[in-house]
Specification:
This protein has 15 helices and twelve strands. The protein has 356 residues and is α/β, with parallel strands linked by helices. The chain folds into two domains: 128 residues, 3-Layer(aba) Sandwich (Rossmann fold), CATH 3.40.50; 213 residues, no CATH class. Helix 1 links the parallel strand 1 and strand 2. Helix 13 runs parallel beside helix 15. The longest helix has 18 residues. The radius of gyration is 20 Å and the shape is globular. It starts with a strand and ends with a helix. The mean pLDDT is 95.
């Protein structure tokens, strides 16, 4: 396989599952964590390695190392692998997804931004989502009429904060996720609920038109639910681990144990909460976005630009959502082709940076 984002949590778990199933690694793509990358190279012996910064090439223990975004695209195009696992973070993951599909490869996708920004131009029949929420929906689907698909959210770092405190929330505060440790961007996106809105939009592209919603489940043991038209509801329970959806993406004939089962007696109780707009203001554009999914490129670009300013202390935490909503209201012209996506992305980013 080709693995993009090898040193992140999804990449690390993917390599564990690949080893379990005896799948060889042709290409490893990583960012700045060269120490971990070198450990992965020693264990998995890839043919090609691609990193972010050319200056780090000399520190990589491999004879075939390249750097930069164009090198990622070339590595995908030149690879013999039929599977590309895209665990890159952010909009930079879009072109690799498009390149993999261009070369008729299957894409195990953890890069939300690919579908959020460019879902209209992606053949989802070649996409296997490895987010636990979309995996849960896929797992639950039966040949029965569906009323609504529901995914769950943890609520992020501020789910229990007094709302008045949110204006003064710091970057360090956003990283204190109540359930697990993730990368910086996704943890901020969890706190704003942008992450969950993106996942709803992904579900819309993956599963088609219909009703979609999200609720908070504080223990992160239920990942998805489906309301069927007959009045019944099914839920997907699993201990929180990316290894299960990754395992199915790598081996559809799953017939062995990957996780410990959820012990409901040990869990004892579950708590559900509504996602409130006063705590998560971006939620006010959820329905309009789902009804107009091609506008996801505006939301993604605005979010990434706003996060840059928040991290640089140019805006406050609650201003992230304000920037997104402002851009969503201002920009309405949808892309007619893939290259439009990249032009719109730059235009929206420039607008949002001007808000700071």
């Amino acid at each position: 396989m080709v693995l993009l984002g090898a040193t992140g949590s999804i990449g690390v778990n993917t390599l564990l599952i690949a080893k379990k199933f005896g799948i060889s690694i042709e290409v490893l793509v990583a960012g700045k964590n060269i120490k971990l990358l070198n450990e992965q190279i020693a264990e998995h012996n890839p043919k090609v390695v691609v990193i972010a910064d050319e200056l780090d090439i000399k520190n990589v223990n491999h004879s075939c190392v390249y750097a930069g975004s164009e090198a990622i695209l070339s590595a995908i195009a030149d690879s013999e692998s039929e599977l590309v696992v895209n665990a890159l973070v952010g909009f930079l993951g879009l072109r690799p997804t498009l390149k993999a599909l261009e070369y008729n490869k299957k894409v195990a996708l953890a890069n939300k931004e690919s579908l959020v920004a460019s879902g209209a131009f992606i053949d989802t029949s070649k996409i296997q989502p490895i987010d636990s929420e979309h995996f849960g929906l896929w797992y639950l689907l039966q040949d029965k009429p569906v009323e609504k698909m529901i995914i769950t959210a943890s609520g992020g770092a501020f789910r229990d904060w007094d709302i008045k405190r949110l204006e003064n929330a710091t970057l360090a505060d956003t990283q204190k996720h109540p359930n697990w440790s993730m990368g910086q961007k996704i943890t901020i996106d969890s706190a704003t609920m942008v992450n969950k809105m993106f996942e709803l939009l992904e579900a819309r592209w993956l599963f088609g038109r219909g009703k979609y919603d999200a609720i908070i489940e504080t223990k992160s043991l239920i990942h998805a639910l489906i309301d069927f038209k007959d009045g019944s509801t099914t839920a997907h329970f699993a201990n929180a681990s990316m290894q299960l959806p990754i395992a199915y993406a790598l081996n559809k004939k799953m017939d062995e144990n990957i996780l410990r089962h959820v012990d409901l007696l040990e869990v004892a109780n579950l708590e559900f909460r509504k996602i409130e707009e006063n705590r998560y203001p971006v939620w006010e554009i959820k329905e309009e976005l789902l009804n107009n999914p091609s506008r996801g490129v505006f939301v993604n670009a605005a979010n990434e630009a706003a996060l840059e300013m928040f991290i640089a202390k140019k805006i406050g935490f609650m201003d992230i959502s304000k920037c997104i909503i402002s851009a969503f209201e201002r920009f309405t012209t949808e892309a007619t082709n893939v290259e439009d996506i990249f032009a719109i992305d730059e235009e929206v980013r420039d607008y949002v940076r001007g808000l700071g």
